[in-house]
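Please check the following for our workbook:

***
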Amino acid sequence: MKLPILASLSCALLAVIPYPLAFAQEQAGLAPFAPFEEKSLIYTGGAYSEEPFRYLLLKPDAIEEGKQYPLVLFLHGAGERGDDNRIQTAHFPTLFKEEGFRKRFPCFLIAPQCRTDQRWTQTSWEDTSPPSSKVPTTAQMDVAIQALLTTLDGNPIDRSRIYLTGLSMGGYGSWDLAVRKSDWFAAVAPICGGGDADLAHRLTTTPVWAYHGDVDWVVPVRRSRDMIAAIRQSGGIPRYTEVPGRGHDSWVPAYSDNSNHLLTWMFQQRLASIDQRPLAGIEALGSAHSPLAKGERIVFLGDSLTAAGVGPDGYITLLQNELNKRRPDLDARLIGAGIGGHKVPDICARLDRDVLAFAPSVVSIFIGVNDVWHFEMGSGTSEADYESGLQDVIARCQKAGAQVVLATPPLIGEKHRGQNRHDATLDIYADLSRKVATRMGVTVCDLRESMTDYLRIFSRKWDPDYRRRSLHQRRQSLRRRPHREVALPGPVSDSQVEKPSPMKWLFARLESSP
């Protein structure tokens, strides 16, 4: 089984501070741009140091007390790059300046602006090689993400209705952000863009509707076709409209609600509650194009979180049951090797007995929380021992012929970042895990990054029951259920696309639906 190598995520420091609107207007020499509000954040990362980035925010025309509204993140195309904080309103945001659209689709709309000569992704639409999301996000995307997170704070937003759309360069950005943060969005609508088909399986359970003109001379139509085909191979049912005779302006019919139902469809989508949400991973593993080979043995090595996985409602048990039901022909076996309280030195000592004795083809390592937490009891693992121990475990697994997935230590107490005294140390140890994974050439499953982000968006206060529901009990999430897209009446224009050869991956990042 071939696993995608996920590059470590960027460690840019983002700090949001008030940036007076009057000052922003004075600096730009621009008058207020009603009904949009000018916003700004300060970004430090990469080539930028305390750099102000401005963006536009459109609020619902009338906000009713006690009511929550959807949030739309729009990523513009290459022609709207700059720093005037105006031109990015072309196309999609302009529609929402109209009274009719604002009344029909009341929402918060964020329109960040990519700087001149920069891109939302590290892949150029001029590049003939396939797009990749296995590299760190760009500074421009980091700013867009921070604008989204900032808007969520202090506004009456329905966090089960966050939508993502973009066109051309923003279509690439939409695909890229969607595969990185698939659990954030209730629906994704990429227009004439392209993405990393190797990671498209993460969108198996995400409602997607893509548009592309079949004679697009700027972004090859195969970019959308490849993404749609890859999602379908994983068991997903995305919508795809290929507009006959249309060039590089398929956003015109896509966003024109008079000619189709894209916007109506998008605003109808809603994230299911956490215990009802289907997992992209099990959909992909149980599909007709499952990457699992016949007779594969996958061992999950870790501490109490892994140990609970083999209980009646544990995630390993539920995954095994679903595989047995959907693909009994594979005869795949998932083996739990977790022991409560264990740390890196402990798994080093028992690796031969509990893991290698099963001759696994894949080993998933989820460790590190106790290495940090046990410093309270005087028995934590030093940074040097943690790093060398992880490297030893991975090297022995690789020598035995197994491929490895390494998860970063996520949380202690499932509290928001900054609310736990161990956060700084967890960040250090998570970064050690990333470095070891990169050095050893193994896939990193960045739970530290994804779960802290998830808590910021979806959990406003610490929930002591979060770990039991999100990691130990996934029965409802693993049951077979229809795709969570809300259907619209009438036929949907959907082109026939060629399907590439089956992808190879272990599982579609279980953390994408924590």
The CA atoms of residues 4 and 391 lie 19 Å apart. DSSP finds 18 helices and 14 strands in the chain.
